[in-house]
Design a protein that fits this description.
This protein has 292 residues and is α/β, with parallel strands linked by helices. A four-stranded mixed beta sheet has the order 2-1-3-6, with helices on both faces. The longest helix has 16 residues. Bound molecules: 2-acetamido-2-deoxy-beta-D-glucopyranose (2 copies). The site of one 2-acetamido-2-deoxy-beta-D-glucopyranose (NAG) has 6 residues, from helix 9. One 2-acetamido-2-deoxy-beta-D-glucopyranose binds next to helix 9. It is a single-pass type II membrane protein.
Amino acid sequence: MLSSPILVSLALLISLPLVLFLSQQLLPQFTFPFSPDADDLALFHHPTTSVVSPGGVFHNRFISSKPTQRASPSLISAARRLLASALLDDPLNQYFALVSQHCVPLLSFRFVYNYLFKNQLMSLASFSDFNLLYPSFIEILSEDPNLYERYNARGENVMLPEVPFEDFRVGSQFFILNRKHAKVVVRDYKLWKKFRIPCVNLDSCYPEEHYFPTLLSMEDLNGCTGFTLTRVNWTGCWDGHPHLYTPEEVSPELIRQLRVSNSSYSYLFARKFSPECLAPLMDIADDVIFRD
Ligand SMILES: *[C@@H]1O[C@H](CO)[C@@H](O)[C@H](O)[C@H]1NC(C)=O
Ligand SMILES: *[C@@H]1O[C@H](CO)[C@@H](O)[C@H](O)[C@H]1NC(C)=O
């Protein structure tokens, strides 16, 4: 076990009511590879309707939840509830990773832990503040052809004055935040007041892809890498759903391929995997995924 007292908290966000039944199938088995690192890792689980706590590493970490829905601010709320619970759970929780049941790890949790704490901003090494030293991994993009429609999804200029269009950002809803930024998210009221307004244009309504990158770029852009550690494959997808990997596609080669990025960071997680991928993934877990 690592001697450092600093913990990484991994939040499993069960995002859609639709997949709950599947998540119940997934969870008990998913707890298995987590266990060896349990001392360094705390797992929180947010289901969307009543689900029996899977126990194990989720013991006492089953967050009471509310239903969530696509194209509504409920996914933001769910992520904030998870962050709040993980912040309160242990003051030593320093990193907060948000994933869903369709995200799979590409490397061991020991590797994830070491990777996060290895990637400190060396130029700031003289700062004693942990949160200045260790960046948050969240995608923050200002260029997107649909940005203007998405900005006005709640009505023309509704976001003003708190969120001018120039400050509106987009990025993956899966991120790893440091403690300071997790607190920024949980404490925020100013932007949440706007993002919680229901959309009038549901076709351009993706609140969770905008709230977190917009808030953190406004609050502390320099403390963020602008890069998510969760790989997603949008090739050939136009309907708002990324490529869903099927069991036939799962292979050691795919795992190795998904780790590689164009940035100086590599990917630690990937999505989206169908529930049926669990068996072939478990088959290669020890020899490929968790072998660093
Ligand atoms: C991405 O998805 C496309 C199909 O949409 C597939 O052909 C391609 O192999 C995938 N790429 C990776 C790296 O998995
Ligand atoms: C890396 O960049 C190339 C060229 O722009 C692109 O085709 C490829 O999809 C990128 N790979 C990843 C993992 O983003």
